[in-house]
Amino acid sequence: MSAAGASRPFVAITSGEPAGIGPELCARLAERQWPLRPVVLGDLDLLRERAGAFGSAAAFRPWQPGMQSDVPEGTIDVLHVPLARTAVPGVLDAANGAYVLGLLDRAIAGCVSGEFAAMVTAPVHKGVICESLGAADALPFSGHTEYLAEHTKTPRVVMMLVGGGLRVALVTTHLPLARVPAAITPQALEETLRILHADLVRHFGLAAPRILVAGLNPHAGEGGHMGREEIDVIEPVLARLRAEGMQLVGPLPADTLFVPHTLAQGDAVLAMYHDQGLPVLKHASFGGGVNVTLGLPIIRTSVDHGTALDLAGSGRADPGSLFAALELAATMVAARAAHAAA
After folding, report:
1. 1-154+297-342, superfamily in CATH?
2. Residue 231, Cβ neighbours under 10 Å: how many?
3. CATH, domain range 157-295
4. Is the N end or the C end of the chain the one with fewer CB atoms within 10 Å?
5. pLDDT score, position 66
6. How far apart are CA 334 and CA 204, in angstroms?
7. Distance, CA of 192 to CA of 197 (rounded, Å)
8. Cα 324 to chain center, whole Å?
9. Alpha-helix runs per DSSP H in the chain
10. How far is CA 133 from the centre of its chain?
11. b/e string for 153-165 if b means 16 or more Cβ within 10 A?
12. For residue range 205-217, what is the model confidence (pLDDT) as tens digits?
């Protein structure tokens, strides 16, 4: 039986960087019942060790594809992937870089095949993965989002963070600020808006989503006095897509876009660059926010924080973002099923 056909669909949860907080956050999943059935991908001994370090009573059961038996209370199913070398909390080891990528590869394959209905990712450490791949000047791994796009052969994906009552998507992501204006081309903006609109319909159950679009420049360019990107790029794209029926508001000055009166007019915000939109969302929801990758053929959500090496092994890491990511994945799975059946 595939994940889609199970009474509670399976969701793959990658436990991330083994020296970070991901494994112990995964151990906390035993504290609740979930609408999706979690399968943690990681090393069984590592998960048991991290759970024991903070006194967790969680039990871990080896999971195999096709396993349908009920999960006893307080038990977590684990698809065992062995570490290359024993992990020490807070101490990065490039020997385990391939292990981290292996978790992602297995989750992607399972989602593509239908074995898993979605994947949820704990944090990884880009630097140690690049070191493990023998990177010199180039960066062979720039993040989950780009890796997922490459391995699902998706030409463009969109990063959206959800939390604090907000949905904020980005046209550009991890770019130096000096390179942002050139990256906001008519094609990039149009493709981003089409992906955002389609996935708000398909995965969030919004029949006619309203999208608030930020300008690039202060005061949205103020009629060209503070930059012409709004006039030359953003406004023409919005006009063209409005003619197709999309509900788009903007370009709006970013400094007043996030006030309650304006936010009430939209279902999501599209920001032009990383630090234009995400500081507001993280102020509203840090520790409980969720990173969603839109445009993929699979559902992927993630925590909104990093590996927190200084907290690893302490038991003090907050599982709120991982819990929220799993809850949102369940909502998206249900919305996708309803959309497909409509």
Report:
1. Isopropylmalate Dehydrogenase (3.40.718.10)
2. 14
3. 3.40.718.10
4. C
5. 78
6. 9
7. 9
8. 11
9. 22-27, 44-53, 97-113, 126-132, 144-151, 180-183, 186-204, 229, 235-243, 254-257, 260-263, 274-285, 320-341
10. 23
11. eeeebbbbbbbbe
12. 999 999 999 999 9
